Structures are given as structure tokens and as C-alpha cells.
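Colleagues,

For the teaching module next term, I've prepared a clean inverse folding example: a structure given as C-alpha cells, and then the sequence designed for it. I'd like students to try predicting residues themselves before seeing the answer, so please don't circulate the second half yet.
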């Protein structure tokens, strides 16, 4: 009885005139990466988050996913690149983002819930008008999610954004799982065409095969100053999926890494 290798060669010879190399594996693609600003995470990802692809940062509350996204946006905006944050749950804190190094003048903040017309924000220490609001007070969760997806679609199709964060961290997994796969496929195609890094913050992965990178974030321990004030937190990041990684022979990397983030108040004191 012929072996599997012999059968494969025979089939390839039979199909080579119609389908060249029909059973030959496609070489893995090495995609351009942008550093996250966190050395431990960059080493885990072979350089950083992929450009022109979807990256999912998953985990529970206080797991470091937002701090990781802010560190990535800080590097992008400090280079003069324009970024966007689509806030499905109205939980984004502009002052904390500025304390973490994000240049708010290069950040478009899209809120999907309005809590009142008098709310104001501060950009680089200057009081300015409130961000763009695309929802109504006490809107239903699925309504806010639909508005966030529509806003993300418009921004991706428009182009011109180096990075875009779709914050679904406060969205229940049962609602996020209702997002059609066709939506994620359209986001992936648009991100690749416009060379935009799309970061999705959620409790669980939703994009499935459309995501190039899935990072599972989890908290490890908080660190306090004089046992009264929270000074920093240590997090663990585990690589759940990496589609665009080079096949290089050598020692295998650990599947997880740890890193620490300083609290916003400590950042402001040092500044």
C-alpha cells in the first residue's frame, strides 16, 4: 500500500497542469508591526501589533487591556499619526489617556452614549467642547453596540487613521457574539486596505478568524505606596493567536509575558 507521501506526490503530478502546487502549503506572511511601547509585549509579538490587521485584547475588567491600548496609541500619536477611539460603553477617560502619553490633539473620540450636553473634556490642559456623541442617554446595549460598529465601519472606510480602538470592554459577551462574521471580515479588508491597526477591546474574542492577533490579558497583583495608595499594577499577557509570524528555527518563546503599568496619578506626579 503506497504511503501518504507517495499518494500526495501522485495527486500533485495529476493536478499540476490544472492547479499548480495544489497541495503545497502557502508560506506564512510576515506583516509590518508597530511597537506597543511595552518591551515585554513587543518581544512576545515579535515586534508589536500588526499594521493593517485586527488585534483583539481580551480579558476581564482591570486586566490591563486598556492600559496596553493606551500605550500603543501614545506611541502612534506622539509620532504625529491620527488615531480614533470608538467608545461603545462611554467609559473612556481622556485625562487618564493624556497622563499615559496619548496626544489628544491627534485622537478622535467617538462616544456612543450621551450623558448630558454640559459635559466637557480637557485636551492637553485646555478645556474644549465635548467629543462626538452618537447615542442617546439610557440607550439599550445592542443599540450602542450597533452604533459603535457603524462608526468603526465609517472610520475604516474613510481611511487616514493609523490606529483605531473599538472599545467593547463593557459589552456583555452574549451581545458581542451576535456581531456577524461578515462585519469582521469587512473590517479586516478595510484595515488592510487603509493600513490601519484595528484594536478590539472585549471580554472575549469576537472576530474569530478575522483577527490576526489575540492577546489574553489578566491581572496578577497590585502594588501600593505606603500600603495606602495604588501606585502600579502587574499584568500577564498570553498570546492566543498569531497569524503573521515568521517560521524561524530556534528556542521556542514562552506563551505569556508579564508587565507593569504605573497608575495615572503617579504619571501626573512625575510629569
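(Answer key — instructors only)
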Amino acid at each position: 500500500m503506497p504511503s501518504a507521501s507517495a499518494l500526495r506526490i501522485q495527486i500533485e503530478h495529476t493536478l499540476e497542469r490544472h492547479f499548480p502546487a495544489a497541495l503545497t502549503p502557502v508560506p506564512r506572511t510576515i506583516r509590518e508591526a508597530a511597537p506597543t511601547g511595552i518591551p515585554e509585549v513587543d518581544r512576545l509579538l515579535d515586534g508589536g501589533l500588526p499594521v493593517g490587521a485586527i488585534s483583539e485584547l481580551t480579558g476581564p475588567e482591570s486586566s490591563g487591556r486598556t492600559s496596553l491600548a493606551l500605550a500603543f496609541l501614545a506611541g502612534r500619536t506622539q509620532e504625529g499619526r491620527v488615531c480614533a477611539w470608538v467608545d461603545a460603553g462611554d467609559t473612556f477617560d481622556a485625562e487618564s489617556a493624556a497622563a499615559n502619553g496619548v496626544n489628544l490633539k491627534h485622537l478622535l473620540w467617538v462616544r456612543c452614549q450621551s450623558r448630558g450636553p454640559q459635559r466637557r473634556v480637557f485636551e492637553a490642559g485646555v478645556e474644549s467642547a465635548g467629543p462626538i456623541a452618537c447615542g442617546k442617554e439610557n440607550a439599550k446595549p445592542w443599540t450602542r453596540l450597533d452604533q459603535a460598529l457603524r462608526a468603526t465601519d465609517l472610520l475604516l472606510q474613510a481611511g487616514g487613521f493609523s490606529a483605531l480602538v473599538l472599545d467593547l470592554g463593557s459589552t456583555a459577551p452574549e451581545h458581542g457574539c451576535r456581531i456577524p462574521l461578515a462585519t469582521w471580515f469587512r473590517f479586516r479588508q478595510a484595515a488592510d486596505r487603509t493600513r490601519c491597526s484595528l484594536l478590539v477591546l472585549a471580554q472575549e474574542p469576537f472576530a474569530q478568524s478575522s483577527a490576526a492577533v489575540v492577546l489574553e490579558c489578566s491581572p496578577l497583583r497590585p502594588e501600593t505606596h505606603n500600603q495606602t495608595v495604588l501606585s502600579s499594577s502587574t499584568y500577564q499577557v498570553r498570546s492566543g493567536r498569531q497569524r503573521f509570524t515568521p517560521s524561524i528555527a530556534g528556542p521556542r518563546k514562552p506563551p505569556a509575558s508579564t508587565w507593569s503599568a504605573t497608575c495615572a496619578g503617579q504619571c501626573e506626579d512625575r510629569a
